[in-house]
Amino acid sequence: MKIYVPIDSAAKALGADEVAETIAREAKSRGIEARIIRNGTRGMIWLEPLVEIDQGQGRIGYGPVTPEDVPALLDGKLDSLGPVEEIPFFARQTRLTFARCGVIDPLDLDDYRAHGGLAGLRRAAAMSQADIIAEVTKSGLRGRGGAGFPTGIKWKTVMEAEAPQKYIVCNADEGDSGTFADRMIMEGDPFTLIEGMAIAGLGVGATRGYVYLRSEYPDAIRVMNEAVRIARRNGVLGPDVLDSGRAFDMEIRMGAGAYVCGEETSLLNSLEGKRGVVRAKPPLPALEGFLGRPTVVNNVISLATVPVIFEKGAQTYADLGIGRSRGTVTLQIAGNVRHGGLFETGFGVTLGEIVNEIGGGTASGRPVKAVQVGGPLGAYMPANKFDTPTGYEEFDRNGGLIGHAGLVVFDDSADMLKMARFAMEFCAVESCGKCTPCRIGAVRGVETIDRIAEGDMAATELLTDLCETMKDGSLCALGGFTPLPVMSALTHFPDDFACHKEAAE
């Protein structure tokens, strides 16, 4: 009997460690031969701790399981969820990047290989640099960290740059509210990120890589460090990657928790041991990045998706999606929602389908008022925008931002003036201080929204003008995108601003 209990941070926060310990103790006392495997999460957070039992006929799910449920679980008297992959939330997904997450033991390289791992790297190791870049370009893969920049173009720029040393830097500083895909993949399938970085290194001619990982993710740090050691011992990393005669090695570096270090140039400064402030561009990191050398900076999900592209072929990946948004999007559904978790599917699913069908509506049972997509700098999308399909250009045309694909759901009790104020306050607190529109504009923004809250509706014109200045004048997306949540709240929910005037009167 194999019993799977997630070791993912979310599952642990909900009691998975206690459940695993109780299962081990109870099984031993009963003389039951059971192998307990600590896997990643399947992403159905409302069912965690999700215990899966495999007695040779497939994995049957139970959840959420408490330590008190364990005797009934081992007696076969606990109600099951049936085969895990037939649970509706899971069954309707197209799992590519997350195909192994929740399935394998994260630190078992043989288990990884048995589920298709390293097939992509082996294929890439037999290809020329130009062919590797062509495959990534053909797939249509774009940056999954926010900007949506074509990955193939970035890699080609670094490949063609002349330099004695090049680098691959993985941006794992996942600081957006409602996002957890990076953490999930690092804790549940770390070798896929390592494999993706190695393919990137072979493609652009980089022999060194770094994962910049936020200090708030201790489990991910532990798993990634151990995975790197295992990969190095087994020839996946090092001077002769999979006997290819080509070198690539990497290490894990910890950030100190600054939100602005999710911006690539601030990240590079921090990685170099400098203060995490935004650099002016040009020069682009692809030409002068880490230590002034050509550097690929990609998000975790971007790099973790590369292996499946090489395993299944670029065309297979490109056949999914909508418009210029190819492949799958890893939606992270959070906030006031019944079925929160990770949902991977092809681009094109509408916002309404995500919230009402996949997410099951609000947990409170009240009507959905707004969904913020793309983290704290994303726009608040009202119900009349729910026919918007998930696609970079499609969202942009509707005043939105996909960003890291995190969605936070709010019901009709939310006060959108307060949410707009929070966006400005967040920017003021997290600003690196480099540019005036962000550093000072956000502080003035908080003050202006407070004036509106006190009944000064004339200040809305000033707020609009201020947002235009921040949008056009800020050096990076922190100041440049803060107007998105502020102006979307003001545009779509004017009554929430006017009601404060009535209260003041």
Textual characterization of the structure:
This protein has 505 residues and is an alpha/beta fold. The chain has four domains: 2-91, Glutaredoxin, CATH 3.40.30.10; 117-318, NADH-ubiquinone oxidoreductase 51kDa subunit (Rossmann fold, 3-Layer(aba) Sandwich), CATH 3.40.50; 321-411, Ubiquitin-like (UB roll); 416-504, Up-down Bundle (de novo design (two linked rop proteins)), CATH 1.20.1440.230. The protein is built from 23 helices and 16 strands. The protein has helices at 9-13, 16-30, 70-75, 88-91, 109-114, 119-125, 129-139, 151-160, 181-188, 190-204, 218-233, 264-271, 300-312, 314-318, 351-358, 392-397, 416-430, 436-439, 441-453, 459-473, 477-481, 483-492, 494-504; strands spanning 2-4, 35-37, 51-54, 59-62, 82-83, 167-172, 208-214, 249-255, 295-299, 321-322, 325-326, 328-335, 341-346, 368-373, 380-382, 406-411. The strands form four sheets. It has a five-stranded mixed β-sheet, with helices on one face. Strand 12 (328-335) and strand 13 form a beta hairpin. Helix 9 crosses helix 11. The mean pLDDT is 95.
Mean pLDDT: 95
**Architecture of the largest domain, according to CATH?**
3-Layer(aba) Sandwich
Task: Give start-end ranges of low-pLDDT stretches.
Answer: none
Report the major sheet. Answer: 5 strands, mixed
Strand order of the largest sheet: 2-1-3-4-5
Beta-strand percentage range: 5-15%
